[in-house]
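Supplementary Methods S3. Input chains for the assembly prediction are listed below.
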Amino acid sequence: MKNKNLYNYILGIADNSLILGQRLGELCGHGPSLETDIACTNMSLDLLGQVRSYYQYAAKIAGDGRTEDDIAMLRKESEYFNVLLVEQPNTDFGYTMARQFLFDVYHFLMLTELEKSTDLNLSAIAKKSIKEVSYHKRFSSDWINRLGDGTEESHSRIQTAINDLWTYTDELFHQTEADEAMVAEGVGVDVTKLKGAYYEEVNSVLEEATLSVPESKYFQKGGKQGIHTEHMGYLLAELQYMQRTYPNMEW
Amino acid sequence: MSNKKNWPLWEVFVRSKNGLEHRHFGSLHAADAEMALENARDVYTRRNEGVSIWVVESKHITASNPEHNGELFEPAKDKVYRHPTFYDLPDDVKHM
Amino acid sequence: MSEDQIKKMEAERSRSLEAEFEARIARDEKIEPKDWMPEKYRQTHIRQISQHAHSEIVGMLPEGNWITRAPSLRRKVALLAKVQDEAGHGLYLYSACETLGISRDELYEQLHSGKAKYSSIFNYPTVTWADIGAIGWLVDGAAIINQVPLCNTSFGPYARAMVRVCKEESFHQRQGYEIMLKLCEGTAEQKELAQDALNRWWWPSLMMFGPTDAESTHTEQSMKWKLKRKTNDELRQQFIDQTVPQAEILGLTIPDPDLKWNEERQSYDFGEINWDEFWQVVKGHGPMNKERMKARVGAWERGEWVRDAAMAHAEKQQERKAKEAV
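Predicted structure tokens for the full assembly:
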């Protein structure tokens, strides 16, 4: 592939949206209220819409006849580059919102920079996505606040979720080889520079929600290199089920 | 039935585009006004139906009683002089 | 006046109100929530609208079962949007029902306790991807036939909800048919999936129109109140007549050896429906009745702390605002 770095860079962004969209999709029909159910599905649809734009672009760059679906559903686990955070399961609504919030704040900052990319395709996708993600961030922040401030039970549940997922936040700011190459070309976003703004915003929402900012300094990483948590294989088993069971067919 | 407080009912009004009035679209449940707005956005504007949303908690709406419809609305029926067609003008008068 | 006389006067008043009420409906006037209505009208509407709402949200489950496994991204977003629409439709219908003086929570309780019914079709499992196509094509097709006349029903909030539902549902059946079409144009294995799904969903779809007219208890009253425009058997016939040619285009065989065009009636004759199976499922013994209820009750119970938290937060916010104002 001529432009391997750009291809991998796009996957690094798109895989996050794919895996998180898939996780949110699991919840459809099982939300705490009809209204919340509909809202979570909207976020899933936004993310999967973004995914399609990214993969269609990636497919063009790959130029080997693969389609968006081949890219989405026919890679090995080690070839998915999403961060560990987004593959974490929907343990309860607290985890779902905590995961969403911790990702949304990053996602918004990243897209704001990506909009300035010299790659016009990426810039256009970012421009469209940023409005969606701005809403996601608002939605999840509001819920962090509600759950933190709400009842004793909700406070303790959301605090636990934040504590547990905190360990996956640092990875958001790791640079891969493809990242470095794309940053050098003015295409990619230097995520290391987003870290300060990220924790500032996250901490302020947590504080408003009367939640404490976890102090742990031990972080997990690996997703960006294709080394995932044990949850990932099951998620992919479902995501890829049809394509694996009935290879080379159109649906 | 538990006597727990459930999310109250809200009425949703949507302006479908600038220049038009907000129209009653339906109702939904939400714990607070902020959530009611977000829910209204997610439930009632999924197909690009709106540019502005109002929400009001249903209990704040005072409605007229249909049993009083006679005294409320019928007296206006015979006040035909409020309508332009009540006035006879020669056909030659244009633009009036 | 004696008690008897008062009672008599009240009965007379209610009779004349009722006569006026029926006359309004006959004139095609709409009934709105605060209007006087006979208690039976209110109860019948609560029952029918809530059953309809329950069907929408229970109906999310069999199709939701394939969201994570949809075979392509295009199919995944379309299915998500469709199942989400069903949540929306449930919500519109619960709202319409609430105007009759019953809360959504009470309606949920009726569903969860097994007191309220929902469409039996959703008690069948979705075992292959083709089932998603078959549901869209057949189940939504049958639902549309049932629902379109309701856009003109006499109770205003129900009619308005149905206008919105029908408008949004127009893509659902097309989506299902497109899935089937793609399968039938595909490999032999794919076409087999399609035929197998049709085999399993055909008869339950016919049962969606309810018992035969001879057995149906509510029809006459429902016709008067415009909850129904045609009888169960007429609607079923309409469904069969419009669906058989669609199956032919797909190249699929309807699993009914007695299905035959009747030149004289200009309609299809069809075989005997297995009513024992119908009643078994209605009574709660279909393949998925228990699982469906478990899923609904589970979601509701797991969501309780979330709903409570939001309410507690809202109350605290109000208190804080009130304090600030002092």
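Chain C has a mean pLDDT of 95. The CA atoms of residues 51 and 118 of chain C lie 5 Å apart.
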